[in-house]
Amino acid sequence: MKLHLLTCLFAIATLQAVAQIGLPPASQNAKGGQTVKGKANGYSAEQLDQKARETLDRKNQAAERNTSKSPQTRIPTKGESAKSPRQRPTNLGEHPKLVVGITVDQMRMDYLYRYWDNFGDGGFKRLIQQGLVCGDHHFGYAPTYTGPGHASIYTGTTPRLHGVIANDWYDRNAGASVYCAYDPNVETVGLKNAGARDGKMSSHRMKSSTLGDEMKIATGMNAKVIAVSIKDRGATLPGGHLADGAYWFYGKDKGHFITSSKYTDELPSWVKKFNKRGHAERHLNAGWRIKRTEKDFVQEWPDNNPFEQPFEGGANATFPYDLKSLSEANGGYDILKSTPHGNTLVIDLAVEALAGESLGVDAITDLLAISLSSTDYVGHQFGTNAWETMEIYVHLDRLLKQLFNQLDSKVGNGNWMCWLTADHGAATPPSLARSVGMPVDYWKPGNMIEDVKADLKSEYGDEQWILSYSNDQFFFNRPLMRERGIDLDEAQRRIQLLCQQYEGVSMVITGRDLTSGNTAGDPIVEKIRNGWSANTSGDVIVVIQPGWIKYGLAGTTHGSPFPYDTHVPCIFYGWHVPKGITYERTYIQDIAPTVAALIHSPMPNACTGKPIQAVLKQ
Fold it and tell me: Which of 24, 199, 389, 480 is spaced 20 to 30 Å from 54 by Cα?
């Protein structure tokens, strides 16, 4: 009884002391849930914090020593980020159902800025606002053409290793120019004439594997790889060597999709049905008209300006276009390639492939490669600042929305991922830029080629020392030079000094410079090196001044190592892709290893790119 009375008296005294110094009861926090600074149990706040940190450190050390148990989540100490987002446990066995690669031919990065206010919510903006944007994405090589661009995206390397050094190039062994996709050993499928050149295409000139090739090998050939494009090289190169199907557009008098015997001996039923629906005829009859008015194109140059190229047979380059009446002079259904209808045909075929090939229906990841070529045709014809160029991108925005909706419906939102990029950019037409005072012009080799031939003859004798001038590269007759004991390096250096004197030339680089690693830290020379193959490229490379092009006075082209040709969009979206933007420099060869890491698949066998860390953060 006395003990109980003493205990009660002690408790009352303690409560009075607490009330006097203003501490809350043990079960109650201070105002706002914060700890009151002061002493407790004889310890200062600093001492209490120290003891708490020591206790947590002991727990963490014990957890790390306990190897008999599965790894435990480390308890953050005070001062560490205790509010960081919870990460998913690592699961290297998980995969998306479908990967979609989208290449927009000739799309410059700045088109996203320029046309932003004209885009809807479900296309480009869905990718950008819900995906990961690489804002400083470039081609790390030159020349920047369609063939090398598509090959580099899917192989994760540059022309130096995958071997597709241009669209066309001089082949030393053949002694003639060759096309990057032409394959004389296959036949055309989808036309009555199996020997027609239009279908004799494959990826046989590409010397490395692709993302899709590795996906198939890693799954016992069970992953499906399908590629669709207007251009044959836009389908065969992304499809790789093991594609289940690659389809491209044959215009002329048919207006349907074909393939080659590399992939199948007969068009699958779903492609036949698509071809029979008369899509091309319907688009031709629809023409190319716009609902926007002149004030909607305030950022573009006026319609029907001298920097645009009209269709053959057309009086001028202005809306509306009667495609039916213009078709005869422009290759029949081929005219659709240079309009938004070309992209519509490709997207519609891609959607048909989802069901036709049963893509994304099981646990094995499939790949659908889509290349949208009509943006390139329009860019070449009308340039970078035309109403037609803006119109095709705004139309493409609507097509992307339709594609994404179909993917959500057929594969399931969250079950697929995609990337969108371009195979190269384009130069502002020099005629346009020059009209407002820019120091640019058109490159014409003029007498340079003949002067080079004459100089070598005067020095080494009257022989054919130059076999070809292709893609601004001189191809020397190496066997003859070896036979005559001529020093190849000395001959290269001689021509380098000669060509450097011509107007419009920025720099001249020799094969010796590139093989010896003599790039002197120059980013332009390094791009040339990455696009150059010792066995297949030329001996002396001419780089023209920035902003100059070798083209007609209307429209534009590409191919240089400068930002207008190398800076392109790169956006990742979907399955396990975080939201945000990075301005860390990334390269086109980084796309394949990034996707491979994300979906847990092998990298292509010649891959030199690096996974983009911002995409892989969870």
Answer: 24
Could you report the per-residue pLDDT of 127-180, keeping only the tens digit for each? 999 999 999 999 999 999 999 999 999 999 999 999 999 999 999 999 999 999
Q: Could you report the per-residue pLDDT of 444-477, keeping only the tens digit for each?
A: 998 999 999 999 999 999 999 999 999 999 999 9
Average pLDDT over residues 337-354: 98
Q: Which long-range contacts (CB under 8 A, 24 or more apart) does 121-124 make?
A: 121/401, 122/400, 122/401, 122/404, 122/405, 123/396, 123/397, 123/398, 123/399, 123/400, 123/401, 123/404, 124/397, 124/400
Beta bridge partners of 476: 466
- pLDDT at residue 69, as a whole number: 37
Spatial CA neighbour of 234 closest among 84, 117, 102:
102
Do β-strands 580-582 and 132-134 pair in parallel, antiparallel, or remain unpaired? parallel
* Residue in this structure with the two tokens 């989808």, named with its chain if needed: 190
Q: How far apart are CA 280 and CA 55, in angstroms?
A: 74
Residues 164 and 611: beta-carbon distance below 8 Å? no
> Are 185 and 176 in contact, with CB atoms under 8 Å apart?
no
Q: Name the residue with tokens 């990337």.
A: 419
**Adjacent-strand bridge partners of 587:** 138
Give 70: exposed, middle or buried? Use CB within 10 Å, 0-12, 13-18, 19+.
exposed
Q: Which of 103, 144, 146, 510 is catalytic?
A: 146
Parallel, antiparallel, or unpaired: how do β-strands 473-476 and 586-587 relate?
unpaired
CA-wise closest residue to 371 among 216, 528, 257: 257
- The answer to whether the CB of 416 falls within 8 A of the CB of 575 is yes
The pLDDT value recorded for residue 519 is 65
106 Cα distance to chain centroid = 11
CB 101 within 8 A of CB 369: yes
Structure tokens at 292: 């926007």
Taking the alpha carbons of 131, 136, 139, 141 in that order, is the dihedral positive or negative? Answer: negative
- Whether the pLDDT of residue 434 is over 60: the answer is yes
Q: Helix, strand, or coil here: 518?
A: coil
Residues 566-577 as b/e (b if ≥16 CB within 10 A, e otherwise) read bbbbbbbbbbbb
Residue 198: closest CA among 171, 230, 245:
230
pLDDT (tens digit, 9 = 90+) per residue, 582-602? 999 999 999 999 999 999 999
Looking at residue 50, its pLDDT comes to 59
Using N-to-C axis directions, what is the helix angle for 340-356 and 387-407, rounded to 10°?
10
* pLDDT value of residue 54: 55
Three-state SS string across 269-303, please?
Answer: HHHHHHHHCCHHHHHHHHCECCCCCHHHHCCCCCC
User: Which two structure tokens, joined as six digits, stand for 601?
Assistant: 């698949």
44 confidence band (pLDDT: 50, 70, 90): low
Which residue is it, tokens 């003599």? 518
CA dist 336 to 167, 189, 539, Å?
22, 21, 39
Q: Is 389 in the active site?
A: no
Residue 543 has φ and ψ, to the nearest 5°, of -110, 120
Kindly report whether the global pTM for this prediction surpasses the value 0.90: no
